[in-house]
């Protein structure tokens, strides 16, 4: 058997292809493709990523993207260690807060870990107090402008309702923020309707309302037909890059909810044009294509739940986000 060499071995990276892509070894082919697209967008040098990280992502995809290549690669991996008793210690864990990777399925609020731990850092101005850190929802919709914008108000309310109906139960450490703004030294205000912090990942969520129908996503626009005017989703790339720079220890993703005036969860139908998932045709840095509610929730849970430490609430990061609410 050929000795195992990790995709990042050339750079001294001991991670497996699955770890590079941020998925479990049991991930489906569809989950692998999603993870690869997200990682490629995030690490691409043209999007502000590191070239070494991008090369590691490409090597990881080459190792597991093809079914036969993945089969050979899996045979080269060492056997996975026997399951550890839930809550049982690992070497070096003494006195350390428990950390979990690979999802938070089946967890409860009692499993959530706060950093700094309760009783620590309470006099530190950069740490959010424990009472607010334990709150699932933060902020409020952006105030109305001079001109009425009923669609925006409705979109924000329905998006928040959708997020709050699923994520707090599925991901106990998830903290939903509404009305996020980053300005000042960035030269302009970067408003985001909603954001979700979970562990070391932050998902920025925008939304767009369209007439009912069937739409095709080509990587840049939603098209309802040859004669219909294309719909451009909100541009999240600038805000994603700014928050990635402001929070270097957190991976930032971008998602867009597509809704009609009658249903925020199942409509409209969004199909993908051939080649629309290639990073080079994307006009924004979205982690996943725009999607109706049910599909969007799946993408959010995949992104947030499979990241590092999905049961950790970082009180310093949360404080930074809360300070930038409207």
Describe this structure in words.
- It is globular, with a radius of gyration of 20 Å.
- With about 325 residues, it is α/β, with parallel strands linked by helices.
- The protein has nine helices and ten strands.
- Residues about 1-5 and about 80-100 have low confidence and may be disordered.
- The strands form three sheets. A five-stranded mixed beta sheet has the order 2-3-4-5-8, with helices on both faces.
- The protein starts with 16 loop residues before the first helix and ends with a helix.
End-to-end C-alpha gap: 58 Å
Q: Residue ranges: pLDDT <50 for 5 or more in a row? A: 1-5, 81-102
The proportion of strand residues reads 15-25%
The major β-sheet equals:
5 strands, mixed
Q: What is the tally of helical segments?
A: 9
Helix content: 25-40%
Question: How many domains is the backbone divided into?
Answer: 2
Radius of gyration: 20 Å
Residue-averaged pLDDT, rounded?
A: 81
Q: Count of DSSP E strands? A: 10
- Series of secondary-structure elements, N-terminal to C-terminal: HHHHEHEHEEEEEHEEHEH
Estimated structural class = alpha/beta
Largest sheet: spatial strand order: 2-3-4-5-8
> What is the 3D shape?
globular
Summarize the structure.
The chain is an alpha/beta fold and 326 residues long. 31% of the residues lie in helices and 17% in strands.
